[in-house]
Task: structure prediction
Amino acid sequence: MATYVELGALRTDAEFHSRTAVAVCLHADMVIHDAVANPPAPAPQPDPEAPVLTPLAPRLIAPRVNWAMNALRNPDEQVYRIMGSLLANDEVQVALGAITDDRLQAVVAAALELQMDALI
Result:
Protein backbone atom coordinates (compact mmCIF):
# COMPACT_ATOMS: atom_id res chain seq x y z
CA MET A 1 0.00 0.00 0.00
CA ALA A 2 1.05 3.53 -0.68
CA THR A 3 2.18 5.97 1.97
CA TYR A 4 0.39 9.25 2.60
CA VAL A 5 3.33 11.05 0.99
CA GLU A 6 2.97 8.95 -2.18
CA LEU A 7 -0.80 9.48 -2.26
CA GLY A 8 -0.36 13.20 -1.68
CA ALA A 9 2.06 13.37 -4.59
CA LEU A 10 -0.36 11.42 -6.79
CA ARG A 11 -3.20 13.76 -5.83
CA THR A 12 -1.32 16.71 -7.31
CA ASP A 13 0.33 14.81 -10.19
CA ALA A 14 -0.59 16.57 -13.45
CA GLU A 15 -0.40 13.40 -15.57
CA PHE A 16 -2.65 11.40 -13.20
CA HIS A 17 -5.10 14.33 -13.08
CA SER A 18 -5.14 14.54 -16.88
CA ARG A 19 -5.66 10.79 -17.29
CA THR A 20 -8.47 10.90 -14.74
CA ALA A 21 -10.12 13.81 -16.59
CA VAL A 22 -10.05 11.78 -19.81
CA ALA A 23 -11.67 8.86 -17.95
CA VAL A 24 -14.38 11.23 -16.65
CA CYS A 25 -15.08 12.44 -20.21
CA LEU A 26 -15.28 8.89 -21.53
CA HIS A 27 -17.68 7.90 -18.77
CA ALA A 28 -19.83 10.99 -19.33
CA ASP A 29 -19.95 10.23 -23.05
CA MET A 30 -21.05 6.66 -22.26
CA VAL A 31 -23.85 7.98 -20.02
CA ILE A 32 -25.14 10.19 -22.84
CA HIS A 33 -24.93 7.42 -25.44
CA ASP A 34 -26.70 5.05 -23.06
CA ALA A 35 -29.52 7.56 -22.54
CA VAL A 36 -29.94 8.02 -26.30
CA ALA A 37 -29.88 4.27 -26.98
CA ASN A 38 -32.27 3.49 -24.09
CA PRO A 39 -34.72 6.37 -23.77
CA PRO A 40 -37.24 6.24 -20.95
CA ALA A 41 -40.59 4.64 -21.71
CA PRO A 42 -43.23 7.15 -22.80
CA ALA A 43 -45.60 8.33 -20.13
CA PRO A 44 -49.08 6.83 -20.25
CA GLN A 45 -51.55 8.87 -22.24
CA PRO A 46 -53.93 10.82 -20.02
CA ASP A 47 -57.65 10.32 -20.26
CA PRO A 48 -58.69 12.60 -23.17
CA GLU A 49 -61.88 13.50 -21.35
CA ALA A 50 -60.18 14.51 -18.12
CA PRO A 51 -59.74 18.25 -17.61
CA VAL A 52 -56.24 19.60 -18.10
CA LEU A 53 -55.33 21.37 -14.89
CA THR A 54 -51.76 22.38 -15.61
CA PRO A 55 -49.98 23.57 -18.74
CA LEU A 56 -47.52 21.24 -20.39
CA ALA A 57 -44.30 21.04 -18.45
CA PRO A 58 -41.11 22.00 -20.27
CA ARG A 59 -39.04 19.11 -21.50
CA LEU A 60 -37.11 17.63 -18.58
CA ILE A 61 -33.58 16.32 -18.88
CA ALA A 62 -32.68 13.18 -16.98
CA PRO A 63 -30.35 13.94 -14.05
CA ARG A 64 -27.68 11.52 -15.35
CA VAL A 65 -27.62 13.21 -18.76
CA ASN A 66 -27.50 16.60 -17.11
CA TRP A 67 -24.56 15.43 -14.98
CA ALA A 68 -22.81 14.04 -18.07
CA MET A 69 -23.20 17.28 -20.02
CA ASN A 70 -21.77 19.25 -17.09
CA ALA A 71 -18.93 16.75 -16.70
CA LEU A 72 -18.00 17.14 -20.38
CA ARG A 73 -17.95 20.92 -19.95
CA ASN A 74 -15.77 20.79 -16.82
CA PRO A 75 -14.17 17.38 -16.20
CA ASP A 76 -11.67 18.88 -13.75
CA GLU A 77 -14.48 19.61 -11.29
CA GLN A 78 -15.45 15.93 -11.33
CA VAL A 79 -11.82 14.89 -10.90
CA TYR A 80 -11.61 17.00 -7.74
CA ARG A 81 -14.88 15.53 -6.47
CA ILE A 82 -13.77 11.91 -6.84
CA MET A 83 -10.07 12.24 -6.05
CA GLY A 84 -10.57 11.11 -2.45
CA SER A 85 -12.36 7.96 -3.63
CA LEU A 86 -9.62 7.27 -6.16
CA LEU A 87 -6.84 7.64 -3.60
CA ALA A 88 -8.70 5.30 -1.22
CA ASN A 89 -9.03 2.63 -3.93
CA ASP A 90 -6.80 -0.42 -3.38
CA GLU A 91 -5.80 -0.67 -7.06
CA VAL A 92 -4.72 2.97 -7.14
CA GLN A 93 -2.80 2.60 -3.89
CA VAL A 94 -0.87 -0.39 -5.21
CA ALA A 95 -0.13 0.88 -8.73
CA LEU A 96 -0.15 4.63 -8.03
CA GLY A 97 0.48 6.49 -11.31
CA ALA A 98 1.37 3.27 -13.12
CA ILE A 99 -2.25 2.06 -13.09
CA THR A 100 -3.27 1.06 -16.61
CA ASP A 101 -5.76 3.17 -18.52
CA ASP A 102 -8.30 0.33 -18.52
CA ARG A 103 -8.12 -0.12 -14.76
CA LEU A 104 -8.16 3.64 -14.16
CA GLN A 105 -11.28 3.88 -16.34
CA ALA A 106 -12.98 1.19 -14.26
CA VAL A 107 -12.02 2.83 -10.96
CA VAL A 108 -13.14 6.27 -12.18
CA ALA A 109 -16.45 4.86 -13.48
CA ALA A 110 -17.13 3.19 -10.14
CA ALA A 111 -16.34 6.39 -8.22
CA LEU A 112 -18.54 8.47 -10.53
CA GLU A 113 -21.46 6.04 -10.30
CA LEU A 114 -21.19 6.07 -6.51
CA GLN A 115 -21.17 9.87 -6.56
CA MET A 116 -24.17 10.01 -8.91
CA ASP A 117 -26.11 7.57 -6.76
CA ALA A 118 -25.54 9.88 -3.81
CA LEU A 119 -26.47 13.03 -5.72
CA ILE A 120 -29.41 11.82 -7.78
The longest helix spans residues 14-37. The two ends are 33 Å apart (CA to CA). Confidence is low (pLDDT under 50) at residues 53-60. The chain has six helices and no strands.
